[in-house]
């Protein structure tokens, strides 16, 4: 195999957190390579969503590890500061997994060598992104149509970095040609340490429902840890998926936006508006600390989800979402929750008006 010189270090390592957080339990749930993992549910990587403040909160609430969103190998190699910034993390987030995407063995290997200096515990290759500009370019889910290339990438990443290498896949590109068996086989042969499986095809994108039978089948024949993913939206479903499919862990994406309690085993519907508000506010404050400006605009996507169960709050929430000024956003949020509590009671809040 071709050898790659160590990439020149131009990334300022001092901007990044090092070290690792203390494990919650003394016995790991499982290992990914030599990395012990405590817990069986984690926040799925989501571009523009699973940033450091979100991951820290999820981790604090019980998420087993922290996945960054996917970052382009090309942009890492160009040292685009916006791309590099996506790897900022707090030590409490550990074990942190960096996710990258690309369509060339050389570029992905050099990018991985660069980011390895920032101390991720694991590097993950994205093989699932269905967005056209990524997948049509041969990256993301595009690799499902070029398994020899995917295999070479994993082999090279394993050879030229010293952290475990994992991959996140879909069950195929075409609905009528599910190639997950071959994909798993190629990745395992290439040295992958674990595989996350989103139970949809690239053609499905986010339509239909995730195929958990395929995920269970993969778990049955694979010889590395398997993480199932797709459509988990409650603690009941989470437990059922773990139990039925026997996967080592599950990833939760969309449903965890505004519901980090999924990682603590608490049904959000059992919480009062004040309990939800307190966590939402903490999330918002950590975004203000992390982003230099416009954090309130970025926070709106979480805000709407945090308060989604409170029907009587909907009009007020919609009004707050239209606010364009930070101070006004904060003041209206705080006063509206207080008003709501005065009107409907401090503790149990009626979440749905009886018909
Ligand atoms: C807004 C958004 C951004 C996403 N970005 C990524 C990403 O960067 N990397 C990745 O592997 N998957 C990404 N995904 C896919 C999710 O990780 C997950 O596989 C998918 O949403 C299915 O899980 P869910 O049903 O629990 O949401 C993204 C999904 C969403 C909705």
Structure description:
The chain has about 350 residues and is an alpha/beta fold. It folds into two domains: about 15-265, TIM Barrel; about 270-345. It has helices at about 50-60, 75, 80-85, 105-115, 130-135, 145-160, 180-190, 210-220, 235-245, 275-290, 295-305, 315-320, 325-345; strands at about 30, 35, 40-45, 65-70, 95-100, 120-125, 165-170, 195-200, 225-230, 250. The longest helix is centred in the C-terminal third of the chain and has 19 residues, at about 325-345. About 45% of the residues are buried. The model is unreliable at about 5-20 and about 345-355 (pLDDT under 50). Bound molecules: flavin mononucleotide.
Q: What's a quick, concise take on this entry?
A:
The chain has 355 residues and is an alpha/beta fold.
Largest sheet: 8 strands, parallel
The number of domains: 2
User: What general outline do the C-alpha atoms trace?
Assistant: globular
Low-confidence stretches: 5-21, 347-355
Q: Which strands sit side by side, in order, in the main sheet? A: 3-10-9-8-7-6-5-4
- The average pLDDT score comes to 91
- Strand content bin: 5-15%
Cofactors and ligands present? Answer: flavin mononucleotide
CATH superfamily of the largest domain: Aldolase class I
Rg: 21 Å
Helices and strands: which structural class? alpha/beta
Taken in chain order, the helices and strands follow as: EEEHEHHEHEHHEHEHEHEHHHH
Secondary-structure arrangement, i.e. CATH architecture of the largest domain: Alpha-Beta Barrel
Number of strand segments: 10
Straight-line N-to-C gap: 68 Å
Given this structure, which CATH class of the largest domain is correct?
Alpha Beta
Oligomer designation: single chain
Number of helices: 13
Share in helix: 25-40%
In the CATH hierarchy, the third-tier topology of the largest domain is known as: TIM Barrel
């Amino acid at each position: 195999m071709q050898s790659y010189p160590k990439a020149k270090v131009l990334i300022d390592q001092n901007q990044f957190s090092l070290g690792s957080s203390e494990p919650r339990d003394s016995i790991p749930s499982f290992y990914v390579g030599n990395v012990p993992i405590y817990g069986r549910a984690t926040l799925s990587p989501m571009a523009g969503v699973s940033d450091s403040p979100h991951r820290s909160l999820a981790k604090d609430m019980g998420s087993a590890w922290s996945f960054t969103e996917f970052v382009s190998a090309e942009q890492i190699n160009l040292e685009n500061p916006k791309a590099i910034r996506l790897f900022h993390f707090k030590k409490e987030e550990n074990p942190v997994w960096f996710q990258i995407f690309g369509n060339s063995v050389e570029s992905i290997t050099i990018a991985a060598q660069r980011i390895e200096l920032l101390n991720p515990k694991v590097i993950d290759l994205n093989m699932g992104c269905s967005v056209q500009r990524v997948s049509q370019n041969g990256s993301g889910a595009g690799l499902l149509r070029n398994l020899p290339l995917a295999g070479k990438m994993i082999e090279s990443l394993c050879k030229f970095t010293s952290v475990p290498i994992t991959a996140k896949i879909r069950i195929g590109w075409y609905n009528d040609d599910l190639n997950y068996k071959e994909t798993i086989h190629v990745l395992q042969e290439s040295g992958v340490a674990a595989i996350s499986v989103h139970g949809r095809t690239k053609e499905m994108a986010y339509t239909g429902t995730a195929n958990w039978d395929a995920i269970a089948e993969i778990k049955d024949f694979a010889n590395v840890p398997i993480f199932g993913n797709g459509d988990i939206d409650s603690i009941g479903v989470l437990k059922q998926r773990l139990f039925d499919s026997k996967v080592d862990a599950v990833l939760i994406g969309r449903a965890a936006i505004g519901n980090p309690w999924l990682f603590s085993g608490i049904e959000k519907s059992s919480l009062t508006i004040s309990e939800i508000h307190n966590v939402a506010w903490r999330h918002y404050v950590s975004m203000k600390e992390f982003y230099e400006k416009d954090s309130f605009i970025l926070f709106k996507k979480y805000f709407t989800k945090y308060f989604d169960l409170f029907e009587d709050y909907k009009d007020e929430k919609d009004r707050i979402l239209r606010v364009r000024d930070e101070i006004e956003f904060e003041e209206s949020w705080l006063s509206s929750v207080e008003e709501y509590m005065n009107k409907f009671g401090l503790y149990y809040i009626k979440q749905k008006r009886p018909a």
